[in-house]
């Protein structure tokens, strides 16, 4: 009798862990996708002024016959271009965009792997999936994700009574919700 009860709780725990891992992977997919979109927009915002300053430089240089008369406008336009490039290089928007895009895709693949198991996941496979998740969490630059996206994802998943990674629920000051009397 006790063996049967232990087996029931073991199976229930594996199913809940599968659900928990799947929810967290899906939440991180959404969060990384939002962060990727944000950094893509920042990258775009830096590229537009560079295109404009390069075009202005081309126009200034082509309309003037006297090199001395365009010296100061050339210096100003070059200075603005260098400032924009320096800011872009220090912020590293392109790199952050690529990191979050890659993480979003990896979390999606992991979600599909977890969903691919019908019923119970064998313990060794579950441990491998959990290790993949932990490695992806360590690669995520949470400090580079705007607070509004963390709050949005944590709020949506908490409202739906789904599990949320502690990195976007507990560490940003959200109220930790309970799902089925378990701390999420």
Tell me what you see in this structure.
By secondary structure, the protein is mainly alpha-helical. The protein has one domain. It has helices spanning 2-63, 71-91, 93-116, 123-139, 147-159, 166-169; strands spanning 178-179, 182-183. A two-stranded antiparallel ribbon has the order 1-2. A hairpin with a 2-residue loop joins strand 1 (178-179) and strand 2. The protein is elongated, with a radius of gyration of 25 Å.
Which regions are unreliable across 5 or more consecutive residues at pLDDT < 50? 3-14
What's the β-strand tally?
2
Radius of gyration over C-alpha positions, nearest whole angstrom: 25 Å
Structural class: mainly alpha
So what's the overall shape?
Answer: elongated
Q: Return the string of H and E elements.
A: HHHHHHEE
Proportion of beta-strand residues: under 5%
- Counting DSSP H or I runs of 4 or more residues, the number of helices is 6
Placed side by side, the strands forming the largest sheet appear as 1-2
The biggest beta sheet is recorded as: 2 strands, antiparallel
Q: Mean pLDDT across all residues, rounded?
A: 83
| Spatial separation of the terminal alpha carbons | 31 Å
List the domain count as a whole number.
Answer: 1
Residue share in helix: over 70%
